[in-house]
Records
---
Amino acid sequence: MIEVRNLVKFYQSEPVLRDLSFSVAPGEIFGVVGQSGAGKSTLLRCFNGLEPYQSGSVQVMGREVARLRDKELKELRRDMGMIFQNFCLMNRKNVFENVAFPLRVWESHPALPKRVRRFLGIGETADARTRARVMELLELVGLADKRFERVQNLSGGQKQRVGIARALALNPKILLCDEATSALDPGTTLDILQLLQDINAHFRLTLVVVTHQMEVVKRICHRLLLLDKGAGLRLGRTEDLFLSPGGMGRFADEEYARLPSGVNIRLLFPREIARQAVIAAMARDLGLSFPIVGGKLEHYIDDVLGFLIINVPEENLDTVYGYLREKNLRWEALDDA
Ligand SMILES: Nc1ncnc2c1ncn2[C@@H]1O[C@H](COP(=O)(O)OP(=O)(O)O)[C@@H](O)[C@H]1O
Ligand SMILES: [Mg+2]
């Protein structure tokens, strides 16, 4: 759907995207995560042709963005909806008008005078189609009853729903989300993420989700790219990046007990391992028992995954390491225990 090869972009002499290569598959929810200033928004703007790039390639649905002419670029942007942190809505217009806006722009026929359009009946047909489409979209995002409300009177979550409805108006193939939940409280964030997941599943819409919030990528992204100062640090399946030895989860601040003796071992539970009763089985097989000193379970897309930290006495370490290797489990010893 999107193919990025050796992408390099500068602002003046400052490199902001450094040799990025990755691809986004059709129907995927792909995350781009990184701190503020990492280059996430710039990358999105390369996808829809709002930013030029100095070298490398960005192909969206098989076409090199930098080579598109005005008309083709317009079509590309129609196929890519976008939502933003600050919503970018017309605040003094009502919900209906905001969602209708892209339809009116796209369906208007500026070459024909209004009088002629009315004579040909173009205006009326387009209006009826617009009305039907807007109502369909408002039903989808759960705002049909707010259609005459001014946007400025809505809550943040409702505004983002309007943003989503507007972004979907022209039936895009790809939805670009730039910090779409960063201005929302945690509960509303979950509602919006659920809506995005539903839209992805229902329409097989490809989503690119840009965010600095790790909780967001864990919740909905199938795969992700970690950006750091414009460079791609990691690329892979979300749970693999977080739930691997030395993975991204390693740096999350976490609490666990430091016992006076023994070594703390983190056992990671990605999808493939989460359903096995690993600790109970190990205790039984080895005839040992282990105190649990820490752990964290979180929602990863549609599952609850995470890690547990157990404390293993020094004298049993070799046995336990041997067992963990033999069973092909994912683990790491925490040397600061
Ligand atoms: N129009 C611009 N001109 C010059 N520098 C810019 C411009 N836009 C962004 N930058 C710089 O590029 C870097 C990446 O910005 P941005 O893509 O907005 O990061 P992010 O979205 O990850 O916070 C930052 O250092 C930012 O200051
Ligand atoms: Mg940004």
Note: The pocket of magnesium ion (ligand 2) is lined by residues 40-41, 178-179 (CB under 6 Å).
---
Amino acid sequence: MADLVVIGGGLAGSEAAWQAAQRGLAVTLFEMRPEKTTPAHVTGNLAELVCSNSLGSNLVDRAPGLLKEELRRLGSLVVDCADATAVPAGGALAVDREAFAQEVTNRIEGHPRIELRREQATAIPEDRATVIATGPLTSEALANKLAALTGSEHLYFYDAMAPIVVADSIDTSICFRASRYGHGEGEGDYLNCPMTREEYDRFVSALLEAETAPLREFEREDPQFFEACLPVEVLASRGQKALAYGPLKPVGLTDPRTGTRPYAVVQLRQDNQAATLYNLVGFQTNLRWSEQERILRLIPGLEEAEFVRLGQMHRNTFLNSPLLLRPTLQYRGRDDLFFAGQITGTEGYIGSVASGLVAGINAARQAGGQPPVAFPSSTMIGALCHYVSSADPEGFQPMKANFGLMPPVVPPVRNKRERYAAYAQRALDDLARFATTVDLVLVPPLV
Ligand SMILES: Cc1cc2nc3c(=O)[nH]c(=O)nc-3n(C[C@H](O)[C@H](O)[C@H](O)COP(=O)(O)OP(=O)(O)OC[C@H]3O[C@@H](n4cnc5c(N)ncnc54)[C@H](O)[C@@H]3O)c2cc1C
């Protein structure tokens, strides 16, 4: 009988199953494909890449590259298979998608302690340690069970992501700190970007002229999709003043530079505990990413903004993790239930692998009587796990690896490239130290 059940043989589930099996657990991995498929997958292979064949930058001083390097050092199955099937892609790690997914499948099938069951899981096992890694397109039967477990208000089916900006790149000589009508703590909880009538009109025209990203067929066909959260460009198309009466309303705000109420205001809300990131309130959008950067920089105070995430809308099943998960990726209400992958909010292919690795290691530690571990937030793996377990639960959205999630380096480094190199060096040093203190073997021996 298995020690651990892993549900979902995607990027996260394959990694979790491997990590736990490498540490001695007998694992049953449930993957419903090819018997039952999702609207995005086309093969029966494990770890199928549903869209791009690029796993992002491979450079250690870039956030996705650092995340891969940490995973390599921790013996990640998926990153090893990606390295083995890489195709030329400059500084990025791109793979031959067929060969990559086949390699992951072969290694999982060949592992003596993993049993692969091609079956849909329709319930959450109660008598067995479990990792749930069913991804953004979790089957309906299991999604219903998850909604029953977490409360349906804590399980989302659509992303309507607003862009996120690095605090340091906001021009605070223009933006002012205040909450509407002076509510909230101290100086005010929001950074406000004030707009004159002319600035507002220019911004709305740019929004209306911009190109939007195409929706996938299964998203276009779903009538609930756009009801989830209207994008700013759709609101803008409803009338010249629609935004000024909606998310950009200036009521209760006075610009200290002029002593008057601006014509419109874009509000920025703190997005992480360290206050290094701010999101644009109510700014979910489906504009093409290249258009977003250009248009968002028309907002006064954001002319030089550095965005760690741009807005997007797509179908995505995910939990309100800050309310439900610990940084160990354990479910708060049940110690032997773990979540991994996109469903936790660790966004993207490699973000999903990272949370799969953490869940697999922690499931094995728990089974072996060792306490599960939370990686330090100065590592990219830890920064992601801390973000999903401690971000503001209101409006929580998945997050990709980025340096803004990490505590600032001390002393501060002004040059961006040098700063990123310093983050990366600190992360790898801290990972090595952490591994020693919690008895984690870096690069575990292959079976
Ligand atoms: C359409 C789409 C395109 C994307 N494109 C990209 C991209 O280009 N780059 C990027 O970085 N990220 C992309 N993502 C986001 C994310 O990185 C991927 O979805 C990634 O595959 C998530 O990994 P995962 O392991 O969490 O889920 P998945 O890789 O989807 O794995 C989940 C697995 O669980 C299985 N499953 C579901 N329900 C059950 C069940 N009840 N029982 C058994 N098995 C089940 C599924 O068949 C699937 O194999 C995209 C997401 C979507 C939806």
Note: Residues 7-13, 30-33, 38, 40-41, 50-52, 120-121, 133-139, 142, 216, 341-343, 348-349, 352 surround flavin-adenine dinucleotide (CB under 6 Å).
